[in-house]
Amino acid sequence: MAVLIAGLILFLGTHSTRIVAPGLRERVVVNGGERAWRGLYTLLSLIGLVLIIWGYGLARQDAVILYQPAAGMRHLALLLLLPVFPLLFASHMPGRIKAAVGHPMLAATVLWGIAHLLANGTLADLLLFGGVAGWAAVDWVSSVRHPRKPVTSRAPSLRNDVISVIGGLAVYGILVGGLHELLIGVSPI
User: Fold this and answer.
1) Between the N and C ends of the chain, which has fewer C-beta atoms within 10 Å?
2) DSSP-derived secondary structure letter, 130
3) Confidence class of residue 155 from pLDDT cuts 50, 70 and 90?
4) Terminus-to-terminus CA distance in the chain, angstroms?
5) What is the Rg, in whole angstroms, of the alpha carbon atoms belonging to the chain?
6) Where residue 133 falls among pLDDT bands split at 50, 70, 90?
7) Domain NnrU, which positions (predicted)?
8) Cβ neighbour number for residue 118 with a 10 Å cutoff
C-alpha cells in the first residue's frame, strides 16, 4: 500500500502546485525557462503514475475489503462513465461542452472516480479512485475561484462537440468491449 500512497502523493502533489503553490510555476519558468518546468513536471508525474500503477497492482494481490458493492452498482458505474471520454475530448476542443462545463477534464475525473468507487470496495480502490476524485473536485473548485487565462484562441465549434461525443463514445465502447479487461485484468461488464 505504501507504493500506491507514495505514487498518489507524488502524482497528485505535482498536479496540485496551482492549488497549494500558485506562484511556483512562474518562479521556475523565470529561473529555468518553460522547458525546465515542463521537464520537472513531466518527470515527477510519470514517476508518480508508475508508482500508482505498480502500487495498485501490489495492493490488489492482498486486497483489504472495505465494502461489498450492492447489486447493480457495476451497471450504474457504466452509466456514470458514459460521459467521461466525451468530456476528456471536449477538454482539448473548444465547443459548447467545454463552455458549459468549464473544466471538462476535472468533471470527467470526478465521474471516473465516483463510478469506480461504486463498483469496487477495497482499501486500494478507496485510496486510488477516491483520492483522485477528491483531488479533481478540489482542483475544480480552485480553478473556478482562481481562473487562468484561456490557453487557446480558437472559437468554440459545434464540430468540436460532435467530434468529442463520437470520439469519446468510441473510446468508451472499445474499453468496455475488451480493452479494460486486457489492460487492467477486470471486465467492466
Assistant:
1) C
2) I
3) confident
4) 27
5) 18
6) very high
7) 3-188
8) 20
Q: Distance between CA 22 and CA 10 in Å, rounded?
A: 17
At position 140, the amino acid (one-letter code) is W
In the chain, what are the domain boundaries? 1-62, 64-189
- CA torsion through residues 87, 82, 180, 166, sign: negative
**Phi and psi angles of residue 65, each rounded to the nearest 5 degrees, phi first:** -80, 125
Cβ neighbours for 122, distance < 8 A, ≥ 6 positions apart: 59, 60, 63, 64, 65, 66
DSSP 133-159: HHHHHHHHHHHHHSPPPPS--PPP-HH
pLDDT band at 51 (very low <50, low <70, confident <90, very high): very high
Hey, what's the cell of 131?
Answer: 483520492
Burial class (CB in 10 A: 0-12, 13-18, 19+), 161: buried
Cα–Cα distances in angstroms (integers) from residue 142 to residues 27, 139, 160, 168, in the given order: 20, 5, 26, 26
Single-letter amino acid code for the residue at 73: M
Q: How far apart are CA 77 and CA 104, in angstroms?
A: 18
- DSSP-based three-state secondary structure for 65: strand
| pLDDT tens figures, 105-130 | 999 999 999 999 999 999 999 999 99
